[in-house]
């Protein structure tokens, strides 16, 4: 997977056919498929939703980070090794062992400090869950260039099963990008939805594998 960043824009080429662009400033995203020459626009919901008279539940997320003191060179930059343990009452425990480099200008959503995604479901008549975040130790800011993420999942019978994901940045380039690079190519047709792509779930990142439709 290749990722590109410019200001509040993030482009991810998730497969040879499928591209996703997130616009954090305007709270929207654009997805397109090069094999179909089609794209769709998704507007994100507002931060504050109306008609939520009752307070929602409280969710506490605790993140404990330890700097091991180890240092290593990646792409000519010094990286520090941080081990982070994330716990949340209604979710599996996650441990992230990663090497981080300073990356000025990196969008907050990509940096380690903002890498926790929270998915919640609204209940009629209730407000959204109130998120309480507690950080202990140095925040894992910067770009994680190499890391191993382990999540402990509860399985029937009361035992635990570990799911592991290994990520590594293989190439890092700092160069100017045109705004047009974050827009669908000329000649693509806007549609309400794109044909389903098979989704290969991963712990922190999803990789879309688009398969031909029909035939």
Number of helices: 0
Low-confidence stretches: 117-124, 198-209, 211-215
The largest sheet, given as strand count, sense and whether it forms a barrel, is: 6 strands, mixed
Strand content: over 45%
Radius of gyration: 19 Å
What's the mean pLDDT score?
Answer: 80
Strand order of the largest sheet: 1-2-3-4-5-12
Structural class, by secondary structure, is mainly beta
Fraction in helix:
under 10%
**Distance, first to last CA:** 27 Å
How many domains is the backbone divided into? 1
Overall number of strands: 14
Protein name: DUF4412 domain-containing protein
Organism: Solibacter usitatus (strain Ellin6076)
What does this 3D model show about the protein?
- The chain has 215 residues and is an all-beta fold.
- The chain has one domain (2-209).
- The chain is built from no helices and 14 strands.
- Strand 6 and strand 7 (77-88) form a beta hairpin.
- The radius of gyration is 19 Å and the shape is globular.
List keywords for this structure.
6-stranded mixed β-sheet, disordered C terminus, globular, 215 residues, 48% strand, mainly beta
Q: What's the SSE blueprint?
A:
Blueprint: E1 2-6, E2 9-13, E3 18-23, E4 28-33, E5 38-43, E6 58-74, E7 77-88, E8 91-101, E9 130-136, E10 143-154, E11 160-168, E12 189-190, E13 198-200, E14 207-209
Parallel strand pairs: 5-12, 6-9
Antiparallel strand pairs: 1-2, 2-3, 3-4, 4-5, 6-7, 7-8, 8-10, 10-11, 13-14
Protein name: DUF4412 domain-containing protein
Organism: Solibacter usitatus (strain Ellin6076)
Brief write-up:
This protein is mostly beta strands.
